[in-house]
Design goal:
Blueprint (H helix, E strand, L loop, with lengths): L8 H14 L4 E6 L16 E5 L5 E6 L3 E8 L2 E8 L3 E6 L5 E3 L6 H6 L13
Antiparallel strand pairs: 1-2, 1-6, 3-4, 4-5, 6-7
Length: 127
């Protein structure tokens, strides 16, 4: 009989962010923007990913819980609401040292299930 457990990923994300903050480093997250419900400014996405500074000085209304990270950030001078489900976080690391944690997205069944297929907006059909 297979036991059903909840994912360790959100607990590890929270712990790593706490460790980074306790060491007075700047926490950054690498986000897979193809995961369902990710809300980030599209102009800053590169190769379906975005790096976000989630330090208290770079964000306001920061909320880190087991389901997601959300905050208000400034991009090109405009305040933007950011929402990142835990499943979309590929890594958490300290900007100053690069120390952190990387999460496997390729074999994680939850990530595969929640991925969506977006049509690329930067490609044109050539006939």
């Amino acid at each position: 009989m297979e036991l059903s457990t909840i994912s360790k990923r959100p607990y590890l994300i929270k712990a790593m962010i706490e460790w980074i903050n306790d060491n007075n480093f700047t926490p950054h997250i690498l986000v897979d923007t193809l995961v369902k419900d990710v809300m980030v400014p599209e102009d800053f996405i590169q190769d379906d990913k975005i790096i976000l500074n989630i330090s208290h000085s770079a964000s306001s209304n920061l909320n880190i819980n087991l389901q997601s990270i959300s905050f208000d950030g400034r991009f090109n001078g405009n305040s933007t609401r950011i929402f990142v489900p835990s499943l979309a976080i590929l890594s958490v690391y300290a900007k100053e040292t690069g120390e952190g944690m990387v999460f496997n997205s390729g074999s994680d069944q939850e990530v595969k299930k929640d991925k969506i297929t977006k049509k690329p907006t930067h490609l044109k059909l050539v006939e």
